[in-house]
Write a structure and sequence with these properties.
Length: 297
Amino acid sequence: MTAGGEKEKMNMRIALVTLMLFLCSGLALAATSGTTDVSATVSNVAPTITAVESVAAQDPTEDSTTTVSIKFTADDQNGVSDLDDSSASVTLSKSGETSRSSTSTCSVTDISSTSANYTCSVDMWYFDGAGTWTINVSVQDSSAVVAYNDSTTFTYNTLKAIKVGPSSISFGSVSIGQTDIGATDDPIIINNTGNVDIAVNTTSVTAYNLHGTTTTTEYIGADQFSVNINDAADGDALINASAVTISNAIISAGNHSVNDGSTGQEYIYSYLETVPSGISAQTYDTSQLGAWVIAVA
């Protein structure tokens, strides 16, 4: 091989080594790791009602309200602070009756990092129906997800009661032999102040003779008076010291404050049928024998 050939061969070897060094250098500088963005979204966990305290049977309060206290526990795995305390509420319901709900803010006590106790008050009216009422409690979280529970019930007891007004009536100034005199204070209003319907023909009046306030031996007999629901003379004749049924009187339970003569009330009219002869001019009243009594069976 000539000297030129050797030189050319040497140059080829140098180029090959240079290329190998370049490739090795490029391999050493290549990336051996990379980055990837990673994310995860944790969904809101719905709150739950874990307990509702039992409620004893409740008695209506005559002509007023009875406050029923309801206690329940709520849990939120996102943390107790996720519960919206202002949303806690209770609704009491019964088929055929108007539902009653808490109207003020429920009190709250945190009992753990995820749970809270709530106490809510609900007012029930005297005319709300007796029987089994369902308790529906609820609370929501900060995402407005609602937890509720309606598995608990309680009993609202019966109450039969009435109030009668006015407390006195008068027939004014009358004359011997005068007939069909209506009381100046009519009607007598019988209000149903409980939650029991007063059935037809179960309301009565026990009347007493009206004795003179000056000559007490003289009197106007109870049998000279009558009562009815129609504002007319010749109603149900009264009997001294005996209960007489007021025909067709019925006093259903209801909100008598409507004052329409039928909702939770009945109007009664009384008449002095005849002023008897043989008595003197004086005032006759119930002060000797006692006030007349209106009662329901």
